[in-house]
Design goal:
single chain; 206 residues; mainly alpha; 0% strand
Length: 206
């Protein structure tokens, strides 16, 4: 995650504080500027809209979560296990992180959840989880990149769905693990197989 300077993080911290106190939908740019101790003009020089501020706050917190997840997954050599355990880790973390817990527990935050699904940053987080799988550290052809993007979209929607409305079928971590393996293992192995075949073709051509 790039370092964008102290003022940038002061604004994001102020926005996060407002979201948790007032709710995302009710927080205004004026609230954030006042909390950060800056003018609205300064705020808009750095962020063109309130949407941009919200997405920057969420992306920063989410990248921190994914970086912590990567440490937890070190040593897992099976690709499907890597993805499934990563999803389980994030689902556990969502309820522990104030902003994420707030978003997924408040009925009036549907606008915020729509923003999550509509931003490249959040899809990129899911894609990075896939690219971190053992065996994926290779050049990908166009078809495999598309498959990875589709799987990333699917994982993001799985995370949002189960975070917002816990499963009535998989009521504990072991049952959720079984459910995720059933859903994801064939697709993960298909994507990995395609990536390895692509890498072999590139090596052969060279």
């Amino acid at each position: 995650m790039p370092d964008t300077g102290a003022k940038h993080h002061i604004i994001l911290n102020a926005a996060k504080s407002c979201y948790l106190r007032l709710g995302v939908a009710k927080t205004t740019a004026a609230d954030i500027a006042r909390e950060a101790g800056v003018s609205r003009a300064t705020l808009y020089r750095r962020f063109p809209s309130h949407n941009d501020i919200f997405l920057a706050v969420l992306a920063r917190d989410s990248w921190e979560m994914v970086e912590a997840c990567a440490v937890t997954l070190e040593g897992i050599t099976d690709p499907a296990e890597h993805v499934v355990e990563g999803i389980l880790y994030v689902l556990d973390e969502i309820v522990r992180r104030p902003l994420h817990a707030h978003l997924f527990s408040q009925a009036d935050e549907s606008w915020a959840l729509a923003q999550v699904l509509g931003t490249d940053d959040m899809r990129d987080l899911s894609v990075q989880m896939i690219l971190a799988m053992p065996g994926m550290q290779t050049s990908l052809d166009a078809q495999t990149k598309e498959q990875v993007a589709f799987l990333g979209e699917w994982i993001l929607r799985i995370l949002i769905s189960y975070a917002a409305a816990p499963s009535q079928l998989a009521r504990n971590r072991d049952e959720m693990r079984k459910l995720l393996y059933t859903m994801l293992e064939p697709t993960v192995r298909s994507v990995l197989s395609r990536a390895q075949a692509s890498a072999s073709e590139v090596t052969y051509i060279r």
